[in-house]
């Protein structure tokens, strides 16, 4: 064993002659442990939230979504749709018309996102898992129905059990510059409320699903669609189907998987996770200043020992190494304890949901956690760097002890 390592271990394991130094060492380890545990728990919660978002969107959204690169809509025909359906791995597709519109119900009104869909959308989508009231249906004979997000239904005060009132969709007509309009400047179409669903706040408070024929009529889209949503076979390769679609469609269309459909939101979660990591790392750095004070006090106490080492032929680098390794040992023990405590808490939270969200949810009732081992590596590396930074100055001071002044 290296001499400096042996002496550092002896200093760490032996009882300090000054009780205050021993207390500082323990406080240092506890501070590092708490900071490490907090980092692991918070990062795991962010991983869990990201996983929940992905699972929700992957359940509600299509496997792949085709959008136009230029403009918000594009023309489709039977040949175009047939070429998509013939691709290997494609189970079904759904034409979609989506745009903002005003909806009214009795004396209430709200701006929402109208999404015109076909019955095939309901067959392929797992919307029934998010149904909270009513019946999932779009048409029944000549009647048209709307499926509303729970937030929209609440805002409008929709009575799903009553047929007395309809939901009215209001959309402005397209007017060319310089033309004079006659009659109403808006189109109005009535639909009956059929059901309410709850997926996620962004959907619940804005989305209303209506039959495709209703969206075509109120928005005057005719043969134009805002997107085509594709659902794949269970054993199909998403990557291969996506590559085939890109080769077929060329550069005029974007082919988006689930993550790409919500790229901004997932990017925001990752960015927030990064800033939280940086913030907690700085807090751990502040807590680790106790290592600085502990080693500084130890260097003062061990001046005679250091002088003896110099007299025996020790170099400044060796003395500096003793105190650096002493700091590393304190940080390592604290970090190891923090990693263990953080891992234990995350496992308990995952299995038993110790800390709840404080609100009812159809998705999760407690804070989700997901253990990513790469986080442990980054946290451990951060603690190591912090320990070196806080231990370096006391180690330098210890290596500058004058042996003559302390040998008497």
TrEMBL record:
List the membrane topology term(s): Multi-pass membrane protein
The chain positions of domain ABC3 transporter permease C-terminal read: 279-403
List GO BP terms, alphabetically.
lipoprotein localization to outer membrane
Q: Spell out the InterPro entries in the cross-references.
A: ABC3_permease_C, Lipoprotein-release_system, MacB_PCD
List the keywords (alphabetical): Cell membrane, Membrane, Transmembrane, Transmembrane helix
**Which family does the similarity line name?**
Belongs to the ABC-4 integral membrane protein family. LolC/E subfamily.
In Swiss-Prot or TrEMBL terms, this protein is called ABC3 transporter permease protein domain-containing protein
Species assigned in the record: Roseivirga misakiensis
Please name the taxonomic classification of the source. Answer: Bacteria, Pseudomonadati, Bacteroidota, Cytophagia, Cytophagales
